[in-house]
Inverse folding.
């Protein structure tokens, strides 16, 4: 089982960077970017475990042979094979940068009020 932090670190390793993880509460994200509410209250709102036990019941000989890290590397190779597949959404990047900045500013102000 992999945590969100582990997943992002594996993806970061595959592209050769150490991710700067920022843990922002879902309600803060939804308040700042309301269109994200649905995805935050869906599969990301509670802890879940995804596994392959169901396929193993129906296909007893099934054995996964590709790790998440290898799957990420294969996916990156697919994207890198055709440059037009590598599209950057600058609006999304700007919105996320603004979100992180607002969160960190609020967090710093909150900490100051307790010092």
């Amino acid at each position: 089982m992999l945590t969100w932090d582990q997943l992002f670190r594996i993806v970061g390793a595959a592209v050769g960077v150490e991710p700067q993880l920022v843990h922002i509460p879902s309600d803060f994200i939804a308040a700042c970017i309301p269109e994200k509410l649905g995805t935050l209250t869906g599969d990301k709102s509670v802890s879940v475990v995804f596994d392959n036990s169901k396929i193993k019941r129906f296909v007893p000989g099934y054995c996964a042979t590709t790790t998440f890290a290898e799957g990420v590397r294969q996916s990156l190779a697919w994207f890198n094979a055709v440059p037009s597949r590598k599209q950057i959404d600058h609006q999304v990047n700007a919105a996320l940068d603004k979100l992180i900045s607002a969160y960190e500013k609020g967090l710093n102000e909150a900490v100051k009020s307790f010092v």
Q: What stands out?
A: Helices lie at 4-15, 26-32, 37-41, 53-58, 68-81, 90-112. The mean pLDDT is 92. The first helix runs from residue 4 to 15. Residues 91 and 97 are 10 Å apart (CA to CA).
